[in-house]
What does this fold into?
Amino acid sequence: MARSKVNRSGELEVLVQVVELGGFSAAARACAMTPSAVSKLISRMEQRLGVRLLNRSTRQFQLTPEGCVFYERGVRVLADLDEAERCASANTIPRGRLRVNANVPFGHHFLLPLIPEFLDCHPDVTLDIVLTDEVIDILEQRTDVALRAGPLKSSNLIASKLGATPKIIVGAPLYLERYGTPSTPQELLEHNRLGSNYVRTQQGWPLLQDDESIVLPVTGNTQASDGEALRHLALAGLGLARLACFQVREDITAGRLLPVLEDCNPGDLEEVHAVYVGQGDYLPLRVRAFLDFLVERVDIGIR
It folds into this structure.
């Protein structure tokens, strides 16, 4: 019989089952074969090898010295084959630790609610999540993916756009009842305008006044480190805040926050990107799986 037509690993598995289970009938059940088929397979192996592997009697068998050597080496061969398959599957199944950095609003409103589904799809991935509106150095922080809002600086990093959102000025009903609702950009100067204490490209609130673009400085009595903190301050009635629409749409629907000066909104969009290092074959599967998952699931507003 030509060696290329022999399923030697399959034969080895049957022989190992015969030895370890103590008989042809038990091995047959384990291998979904009949006892006679197991017996014939062992006989074919002996004929091909030119040695007797088993000394058989009606009720029992015994390994020959050649059979002992063949069995012991066969067990090692099957173990090596299992290990080879595990190594190969590691290259086709996302696994390992995935470190993700996200800005706080995106993290709260999109990322965290999606984590259970992602881990259910990829149980061999372990997530390490950091939420901050500070723009980090992903190489220095050993981060796999950073989710960033706003304009991107030029770099060697790769970026995938997840979407874009308009921004809106909002205030709590309690604040607007107490201080009035501004009807022009100039009236905003009399209001407490809550701002962020991190550096952004654009300092101030862009608005339209008489069909011209202006930028109103933010000089309120409180600044915060992230957009979600500003949202909570606005909900508490401390002042007005300019936030991403996805952050406040549920609050507006519920009446907890009210839009202000919508007629003066310039309609500028804040883009959200997933930033990472590497591409193609150099991108770990866990990173590729995470990016594909985000692109499919995230609906920020405008693609």
Summary: Residues 3-90 form a domain with the Arc Repressor Mutant, subunit A fold (CATH 1.10.10.10). The chain has a mean pLDDT of 86. DSSP finds nine helices and 13 strands in the chain.
